[in-house]
Specification:
Blueprint: E1 3-10, E2 16-22, H1 32-49, H2 51-59, H3 61-78, H4 80-92, H5 95-100, E3 104-105, H6 106-110, H7 117-129, E4 133-137, E5 140-143, H8 145-152, H9 154-169, H10 173-178, H11 185-189, H12 203-227, E6 235-239, H13 245-253, E7 258-263, H14 265-277, E8 284-288, E9 302-306, H15 314-327, E10 333-338, H16 345-361, H17 369-378, E11 382-387, E12 396-401
Parallel strand pairs: 6-7, 6-9, 7-8, 9-10
Antiparallel strand pairs: 1-2, 3-5, 4-5, 10-12, 11-12
The chain binds ligand LPSJV3QT and S-adenosylmethionine.
S-adenosylmethionine is lined by residues 192, 198, 210, 213, 217, 240-242, 246, 263-264, 267, 290-292, 306-308, 311.
């Protein structure tokens, strides 16, 4: 008998046994290419699944390197939940920040931290093995490339720290998949995904998520502004614009652009304060409201939706887009920017990350550009177009016209 899967099920006491489930016969492919692909995959999988073949490959130098690459890739994912905690702890302990100032000894880094010297050395060694830092000479540490990127980007640091919430929600991913109504921490964090009583979201909750969005906006805005030239327009309305950080980046690059922002009233208040602090209140107008129901101001040439549609299920996206279509003047340009599913490695990684993220958040979907273009056309927008960015991990753009 053939078996396709093994799952460890805990029985009474501490013993565990292997439960084996029988393979179901593969469905028959409809095309010749499909049936050849099935034959090839079946043959290849049988080779890879054979312990004898794997042992043989390990004895042949060229094949050994290939097999070890595959094994390491699988181990990187298997142990990823531990590796990510090494990164998280380094950020929490401000290790990368401290090393930004220059080389430091283990004792320097242990000094003033909760960790004694020995435990700090243990942490530093793991960070070195994961290539976040390098040991220049025994006990003297500097940043490696990944550590330097994290140290220089408050957005990445903020994301790593907020993963504490997501991490706990992922304790039972099968439960999340089976029962999407399960209460999670991310559902409380992103309070607007509950839809009802949007006017009851308190300032502290809105400030919490808006601050995360603010910190992570720099890397995103760079990538969006390099892909789309907002300088073609005299005015821009950023819908769901948070505390105005995206507009502030646009303002810096395009000094003549008139700025407009629309967000929930509680967030609009944060945006007014932030834009004023940045000396931008003279060239900006902030509107509070619900983008699914309230009329959207129609005086701008361009409207952006940055990390908005992905937060919502299809029906709600249809509501947002049809409200926009109803409100905007013909000819208004629409720019959608968010992580989209696609074939590149970055887009695939982002799609896995966000698909699980939205599951825990209880709303939203990581869509492909084609799916977004379809929703836009359905809502009556014309000429939908995809624009690639330099970093599909962060965003792809879809533009269209009212
Ligand atoms: C040639 C020689 C000798 C040396 C060259 C050395 C050199 C200069 C190297 C530099 C190489 C280089 C260019 C590296 C670049 C690295 C980059 C760009 C790294 C970027 C990393 C980005 C990361 C890790 C981003 C993480 C983002 C996350 C986790 C985002 C999460 C977003 C969330 C949760 C959003 C929520 C909003 C919602 C709810 C979905 O709407
Ligand atoms: C994921 S954040 C993105 C913020 C910003 N665009 C960015 O990329 O940093 C989603 C934004 O949509 C806003 N939002 C959610 N539901 C809304 C609604 N019904 N009407 C108006 N704004 C809403 C939230 O307050 C939040 O600022």
């Amino acid at each position: 008998m053939a078996f396709s899967g093994k799952s460890l099920t805990r029985e009474s006491g501490h013993s565990a046994h292997l439960e084996l489930s029988p393979i179901t016969p593969p469905p028959v492919a409809s095309s010749l290419a499909g049936s050849l692909a099935i034959k090839f995959r079946t043959w290849r999988n049988a080779l890879v699944a054979s312990e004898e073949v794997r042992a043989w490959m390990m004895r042949i130098p060229g094949l050994r390197a290939f097999a070890n690459r595959k094994a390491n890739a699988l181990f990187r994912i298997t142990g990823g939940f531990i590796f990510t905690q090494v990164l998280n702890t380094c950020v929490k302990m401000n290790i990368f920040q401290a090393l930004m100032e220059g080389p430091k000894t283990s004792a320097d880094l242990a000094d003033g931290s909760r960790l004694g010297l020995e435990r700090m050395q243990l942490l530093l060694r793991q960070a070195e093995r994961l290539e976040f830092i390098v040991e220049i000479e025994p006990g003297l540490w500097m940043l490696n490339d990944a550590g330097a990127v994290v140290a220089s980007d408050p957005g990445i640091q903020a994301m790593i720290l907020h993963h504490d919430i997501f991490y706990r929600d992922l304790e039972q991913p099968d439960q999340l998949l089976a029962a999407p109504e399960t209460e999670t921490r991310l559902k409380s964090y992103w309070a607007y995904v509950r839809h009802t009583h949007l006017d009851e979201i308190d300032t502290e909750t809105a400030a919490d998520y808006s601050s995360l969005m603010h910190h992570s906006q720099a890397m995103l805005a760079d990538c969006v502004l390099a892909a789309y030239d907002f300088g073609w327009h005299r005015s821009l309305l950023d819908i769901g614009g948070g505390d105005g950080s995206f507009l502030a980046h646009c303002a810096k690059k395009h000094p003549d652009l008139n700025l407009h922002l629309f967000d929930l009233p509680v967030v609009a208040d944060l945006a007014r304060d932030n834009l004023e602090r940045r000396g931008l209140s003279g060239r900006s107008t902030v509107h509070g409201g619900d983008f699914t129901a309230d009329r959207i101001p129609d005086e701008t040439e361009c409207v952006s939706l940055v990390r908005i549609l992905c937060d919502h299920d299809d029906d709600r996206v249809r509501q947002i887009l049809s409200n926009l279509h109803r409100s905007l003047k013909p000819g208004t340009r629409l720019v959608i920017a968010e992580a989209m599913a696609g074939p590149s490695e970055g887009a695939r990684l982002a799609a896995v990350y966000f698909s699980m993220y939205f599951l825990a958040m209880g709303s939203g979907r990581c869509r492909s550009d084609t799916e977004i273009r379809l929703l836009l056309t359905e809502a009556g927008f014309r000429r939908p177009k995809t624009i690639k960015t330099t970093n599909p991990l962060l965003a792809t753009l879809v533009t269209a016209e009212r």
